[in-house]
Specification:
The protein is an alpha/beta fold and 145 residues long. It has a single domain (7-139), classed as YqgF/RNase H-like domain (Nucleotidyltransferase, domain 5). The chain is 40% helix and 25% strand. The protein contains five helices and six strands. It has helices spanning 41-51, 71-85, 99-103, 107-113, 115-134, and strands at 7-12, 17-23, 30-37, 54-61, 91-95, 140-141. Strands 3-2-1-4-5-6 form a six-stranded mixed β-sheet, sandwiched between helices. A hairpin with a 6-residue loop joins strand 2 (17-23) and strand 3. The longest helix is centred in the C-terminal third of the chain and has 20 residues, at 115-134.
Length: 145
């Protein structure tokens, strides 16, 4: 599957707060969008998609360090299914182990965007690098488990 043109979105899921990051249309530069209440996600994604061509939505899949899935991964998969129903762009799952740890280094960015948005930024950077290396969308499709 070839890469589609357009912005990529990454989501760091949390039960209360969700972080969002977005790339430029070429998929080269990733930036944090912000941290929002979980109840606002669908509305926010629809608004972003009205203003931008979205090619892929990446959702962080929180795996245990062993690679096993737990309750958080099940919740992220359920979120991915809900977002897929919005029919904005293909939804893909990306291993997000250590994304929050990587995101917590820049205190000024945390203050501006929130730790969840920076975790989403780490997920997006990882996905974009995977796209460049593989020349196709990164991560797994929703039915791959």
């Amino acid at each position: 599957m070839a890469l589609r043109p357009g912005h990529r979105i990454a989501i760091d899921y949390g039960e209360k707060w969700i972080g969002i990051a977005m790339s430029d249309s070429s998929g080269l530069i990733a930036s944090p969008v912000g941290t929002i209440a979980a109840t606002e996600l669908e509305e926010k994604l629809l608004k972003i998609s009205e203003q931008n061509l979205i090619s892929t939505i990446y959702i962080g899949l929180p795996l245990h360090l062993s690679g096993d899935e737990g309750q958080s991964a099940s919740l992220a998969r359920a979120l991915a299914d809900r977002i897929n129903q919005l029919d904005i762009a293909p939804v893909r799952l990306v291993d997000e182990r250590l994304s929050t740890t990587s995101a917590s280094s820049d205190k000024s960015l945390i203050a501006k965007f929130g730790i969840d948005a920076l975790a989403a930024l780490e997920i997006l950077k990882f996905a974009l690098e995977g796209e460049r290396l593989q020349d196709r969308p990164f991560g797994s499709q929703l039915d791959d488990h």
